[in-house]
Every structure is written in structure tokens, then in C-alpha cells.
Structure prediction request, 414 residues.
Amino acid sequence: MKILFLSHNFSPENNALAVRVHGLASAWVKAGHQVTVVTDVPNMPAGVVYQGYRNRLYQRQRLDGIEVVRVWTYVTANKGTVKRSLSFVSYLATATVAGLLLRPADVVIATSPQLFTGWAGLAVARAHRRPYVLEIRDLWPESITAVGALRNGPVIRALERAQRRLYRWSPTIVTVGAGYRERLVEQGVPEEKIAVVANGFDKALFHPREADPDVRRRWGIPAGDFVCGYAGTIGMAAQLGIVLRAAKLLQEKGRADVTFLLIGDGAEREQLAAAARAQGLHKIVFTGLQPHLQIPELLAACDACLAHFRQDKLFTTTLPAKFFENAAMAKPIILGFRGHAQQLLQKADCGLAIEPDNEQELVSAIETLSADPDLCRRLGQNGLAYVLDRHEHGKLAADYEQILERVVAVHRGS
Prediction:
């Protein structure tokens, strides 16, 4: 097949969206398909164009066998409402034009979270009279109000109307979790047109390995510390203020042997780092943005990994990509989620669940794991076995491929 994939983010960016699209696309190329990704210039999350790139109107490159078409967008940091909206709308315009100028593919996919990408994909698919697949990675605009980025009002209502139309006009929808499928059905989307292809991990990159002592030395972490690591976007949804409060509790208890390693960047990082300095919390290390290829060595230096989202009904549907990457490193997971993610944690028996935004429970989980290395090993091995069997990118790409083949076959037979 010739597959056209529209995604606002792509490698070398290392947010969950970019990693997922790259993983799927590279697996499809290895399976013999031709894949073109229409994206923007890499700049996430700081809104600074990566070294070696320029924000041009139109440019092409080849990456791991994938044809990458980069279009001009309004580049801005991953925070704020007005500027980010301008970025979304600019991508809608330039990605649509680029897609229309490309030779028609056999199938067009567009991936959220922001739905302007979905509208661009639908426009291209309809113009080329090709089947269309809308991928839902986030329930947008609900996630905007859930994190407090916008209040309910005329803008949100307009986005909700646009969302409903896009869902109605998209013949096939792929979600990244059963929780999302349930929410879509509640919103009136026919269940028969929804498929699930979960998030996963690249087993060539994320796999158990011995910790490199130089990694801890590089970040000033004592060799004997118990390290709780978080790798991902440090934004409003993650609500990592819990880490500062937990660090303060541990400090008050005299636990100077626990370090939090926060790997990544986002709208909240500078504010959290400043607050940690102001409170004298010296056992929190902020690495800032790190290349995706270096994330595994940082996770290898951790004893446990934290996956956390703010307390909101919306996030009970979420299965974060970091869960699978952490499990693939054979690390026990401290999970601050309710709903489907917690059910998965219990099914895999790969970590400890805490109430979201409850620092007392986070401290208790750290104390339990730091006191029991055998428990850490057992939970880590359980998680590794579970995700290897079900969530490796190659397997997920094969499942997705079958969906695309059915979609294309139905279209050709109509």
C-alpha cells in the first residue's frame, strides 16, 4: 500500500505522538509499504526549531525509509492558547495543500490530539477520493478543559461541534485504548467503525540493561540513592507538583537517599524547577529535553518509574505511552492513574497504584519499593513479559496494517 500519514509532530521530536507515528511508519516500510508523513519542522516542546532544520514552506527528507514532507507552520512553545491555536491552524492550511499536491495514496491517516490535523486529512482523502482513517490519541477538546487551558464557553462549544462532525464524517476511527472507544460510543459514534490499536514501544530501543554509573554521576545523583524517574512531557496534564510535595515529605522524614529524576520538558518545567529551588528541594533533578535515543539509558539509571496524570474523569480513559516504555525497561511502575491504566497495571502485576495527586501515597510507594529490591525485580519482570507479548511496535503495526488493508479493500470494492 501507499500510505499517507498526517501528523503535526514527528521525529526527531520525542513526544508520544511523534514516537508512535515513527514506530508505525517504519514498521510498515519494513513490511514493504510506501509511507509518506506530512508534518512540520521539529520544534517541540520549546517552540525552537531544532539544529539542522529550517521552517520552510515545503521540504522533503527520507528517514528510516519514510518519505517525510515538512511544511511551514507558525512555530511556538507548547504552552498558551492563542499562539498554539495559530500553530494548529497554520498546519491545517499547509498540510492540506501539501497533501493535495502529493500523488494520491491508497489510504490517508490523520492523527490527533488536535483535530485540525483530522480536518486536513479528511479534506485530502475526499479530494483524492481515497479511504480515510482518523486516529484519536486524545479526547480533544475535552482534554483542554480538563487541564484548565480553556474554560467552557463559545470557543469550546465550537470545537465540540467540529469534533462531532469530524467523528461523523470519518468512516473509520482508530483509538489508542478501549477507554477512548467507550467515550466515543457514549458520544454517539457507531461502535462498528471504531478499532483499537494501543500505544507501545520500540523493543530495539527500550529493553533491560545494566545501569551506567556515569549517568548518575553526570546528573549528580549519589550511587546509593533510590531513583524514581519520570520521562515525558512536563505539562499541565502530568501535574508533577506531586513530586515536589513528596520530596518535601521525604526530606522531613530524613530520607536523603531518594532522588526524583524528571526527564523531559514542557510548559510546567521551569515553574516546577524554580519552586524546587525556592523550597530547597535538592533531591529533584530536571534534565530538560533529551534526545529520544538517550531516554533508555536514563531510565536504566532509575529504580522505579512514575506515570502520573492529574485527577480528572477524562484521564481514566488514558493508556500513556510511557507506561509501556517503562515496563519494557523492566522497571516497577508507580502509577498515578485511575481507570483503564490501573486495570492494566493490576493485570500485568507490574507496579503500585496510587491516588493521583496524593503525595502521601507516592511516598508510601517509594518507601515500599526502596525497602524491597526483590519486589522491584519481580514487578519489573512482570511488566516486561506483559508488554513484549502485546505492545511492541512491530506487533501493533501489523494489527494496524490489517485494519488498513480491510479499509482499502472495502473502498476498492465499492
Notes: The chain has two domains: 2-200+392-413, 213-390. The first strand starts at residue 2 and ends at 6. The chain has a mean pLDDT of 91.
